[in-house]
Protein 1
Amino acid sequence: MNFDDELRAALQREPAPADFAARVLGKTTKTRALPLWRRPAALAIAAALALTALVPSAVYQYRQHRRAIEARDQLILALSIARVQLQQVRERIQHNTRHKI
Amino acid sequence: MAVDFAGIVADNQSMVFSIAVRFLRDREGAEELAQDVFLQLYQKLREIESPAHATGWLRRAICHRCIDEARKRKLRPRIGLDAVPEPLAESRNPDLLLNERLRRMVEELPESARMVVLLRYQEDLDPGDIAEMLNMPVSTVKSQLHRSLAVLRGRLEKQEICR
């Protein structure tokens, strides 16, 4: 027998442990028997649906918040303009009163 | 074409387990890895066209998983009882003793060379098929085979002289 044949003889496939196939098949059955709500794909879909439901409400709330801030800024601007104008009127009145006296 | 998973396991368990156990030198780890590879195939069963396709897929998968596992173990060494060689009993059949010595010497080859030798002599694959499976040039496979055979012959002769 040459060396190649000796190696082939030495490296013949070894049988797998007796219960190997049963254990593999048992694991596949467990995978199949998982309830729907515990399967990774189902969990991913549920998470996606929850996100889809939450996103529009979050966007709506954010827009409302922005609008409130804009309204507040406009009010502050209007009040400051009014304050300046009132100040000018008061100064004019004071000036006229001083002239008459 | 629908394939029968139980049939695939029955037909290929010995091939997958043998590659793993001879490469990793650890029966427990090899069994775990072999089971994992079959479960991986189970999840891809729809893509499998025929029993031959399944065999090729499993062979490639176990080779690459073994190489990855060996790399991981270099980072986290794991020594099982199987890593410690059993003492050879003098009274046993000389052919069996030779086979055992050869297997042990193959297990001591560097990882890449060990996988090439296993695929060549256990799986009877051509250097071209081995090269494709391990993503390496055919010339590398041939040179690794050549060097491995020289090393194995040398070690065997040395052992014969010492006995």
Protein 2
Amino acid sequence: MHSRPCLTTWLYLSPLHLLLLAMLTVPSLYVFWLSLNGSSYGTGLTWVGLENYRAVFDDPYFWRAALNTFLVVNGVVYVELLFGLALAALFVSGVPFRGVMFACILMPYAISEVVAVLVWKMMMDPNIGAIARTIEELGLGRVNWSASPSTGLVLVGVINIWTHLPFTFLMIYAGLLAIDGSLYEAARIDGASRWQRFLRITLPLLIPTLLITLIFRLIFAFRMFSEVWLLTKGGPARLSEVLAVYLYQHGFRYGDFGMAAATGWLMVLGSLLLASVFLFAMQRGMKGGE
Amino acid sequence: MSDAFSPIERFARGLLLGFILIWSVAPILFIVSSSFKRQVDIFVYPPKIVFIPTFDNYLKLTSQWQDFFTSMGNSLIAAIGATVLAGIVSFFGGYAYSRYRSRITAWSAVYMIAVRVLPPIVVTLPLFPVADRLGLGDTHLLLILLYATFWVSLNTMIMKNFFDQIPYELDEAAYVDGASEWQLVSQILARLTLQGMTAGSIFVFVFSWNEYLFAMIFTTNQAKTAPLILSELMGAVDGTEWGVLFAGVSLQLLPVVLLVTLARRYLIAGLTAGAVKG
């Protein structure tokens, strides 16, 4: 039972849409305008057309940041999906002390990125860190994780997985719970092994959940800033920058809002492209009766 | 029971579970336990598991790092403000999306989710000069508005799902009894959707309490939040103050870790409402 919207409907919706309009939509569109102008910290605009985009595309640091973002995002998201799936399957089939286990696995979800970077940087420090020293004791060598761009980015990836695995796990777990239990019952009576049931029932039915989780995580990993900024500041020699750090450097360090805005608008387009699959499915859901 | 796990399977399951437990909890235990250790014991290798606890670090924290407690206050103001604002806004939004439907509401809901995917750092560019001119730079209000904005979309979807579970017949019965729409929403439905509001509030509160990017760009002094202060201390501490830093970090993380672990039921309800069914 749904009514047609009337004036009061829009009154109920107005605080929501005012907030979104003022803090998100108008600023995001204004970024496009900023990207077509040169400015000093966003004031005193002078029209330059597509000059900022040309500067961004000509900048090898931009491509380095784009490549880093691509590598870290993909590395992180697929590892997480795999671990999240294994973990969720484990929980659905029953674990001892379920409540306590659940609480433990969710803990990193409550930790600030600042704290996550602090503790991992600490544990990976070649002089004082417990993990780094264990790696050394095992004869795997002494690595100064924060010193080179590639190991720095690996550590960024590890921290990212640590903070976001609870989200991925919860999404997949909820998806697993939604699968009709009688399907498994029927398959078991027909003599299907546990592995067969997982491959033939669980996985196919879980694909929508996995897709949505994947899209969400891609979008959220794509905007990654704090981990990189706090761990390496994008260094050494700007080689470990990701796109958000590149934007921040140009906007707030070099005061070049034009190039920063061009990068920002490219990030907006990238995010919307990633989200379009989900939004398309959602629009059909909202319009239909259910 | 042909369905029991073989010994090898049981071993593999135990291994995975053990690994995930250590992976999730060990870093947090390391910080919290280090905050009770003497400076010389913190970086002993292999780490000391049994030690005599000391409260020196916490005493030092209260006597030397006044800024940290001010910043905890600022974090609390920003987090509570954002939670309340987002809660009210998404309560009404969720009601409207649940009870009214047309092509325009469908598109406006899609738009609501679409803007949610925009990277936060993008809006800092245009908001930076504007906030400055409006005198909103370095204020709690700006942080509250920003944090609420980035969570109203998910919260509204959570509320919509909770409203959807309340049968429309209840609305009709209230109207028959002579209630106005405002009375129905603010008195009857508000009470029935408390669970949804709790679920949404936890997300906003935890996010706002921990947020770093906006706090770094938009606060300089008055409204500095705890994560920002911790990040500055992290770069500044020398050899003798790690214990004090760990004490500060423990105070910052314990309330939200407790909140998330105790209220995990609501997290699941919120995530399933906001995303999977969305």
